[in-house]
Amino acid sequence: MDFNKALWQDFSQKHGLTDHQLQQFQQYYTLLKSWSEDINLTTITDEADVLAYHFEDSLNLAQCCDVSSAQGIADIGTGAGFPGIPLKIKFPHIPIVLVEVVQKKVTFLNEVIKELKLDGIEVCSLDWRTFLRQTEYPVSLVCARASLRPDELIRMFQASSPYKDATLVYWASHDW
């Protein structure tokens, strides 16, 4: 695939990426674009738009909280892997769990993890309520990019939840 080199170079410099991380983002973009032609992952597939609305938006989480020292991250309703996979590429040392119930998206996410050779990341296909009741991942940061309503997300703070001490980050861009 031919990439817009200037666009990718700007992205790389802005986020302090290594050559390997940049290559992973480009490979992720290629997979996202290819799979989106066959299944409904995202309607945003233009190179510049994916960089801005998916990759940069995901990495911008680090501007509002200290992502680099997170014990672990749970990405709720990750869809095509946003923000979890971009965060894993940028912060490879952080364990990440991608929570997604749609099977075709789960299949895509597992393919991305395999193709990008990402370690310390897994896909959990449980729904949110079951995830809260049946899992105990070492998570200090829970993020949801407009995947569930806030009144559903705050269930994590119930006294019986293993995630009650985690920080919840929720955002929805006005551009979506």
Describe the structure.
- The protein is α/β, with parallel strands linked by helices and 176 residues long.
- Helix content is 43%, strand content 11%.
- The chain has a 5-stranded parallel β-sheet, with helices on one face.
- β4, α7 (150-153) and β5 (167-170) form a beta-alpha-beta unit.
- The chain starts with a helix and ends in a 6-residue tail after the last strand.
- The relative contact order is 0.14.
**With helices defined by DSSP (H or I, 4 residues minimum), what is the helix count?**
7
| Rough outline | globular
Order the strands across the largest sheet as they lie in space: 3-2-1-4-5
Order of helices and strands: HHHEHEHEHEHE
Poorly predicted spans: none
Helix proportion: 40-55%
Structural class determined from secondary elements: alpha/beta
Radius of gyration: 16 Å
Mean pLDDT: 93
Main sheet record: 5 strands, parallel
**Separation of termini?**
27 Å
Strand content: 5-15%
Oligomeric nature of the chains: single chain
Number of strands: 5
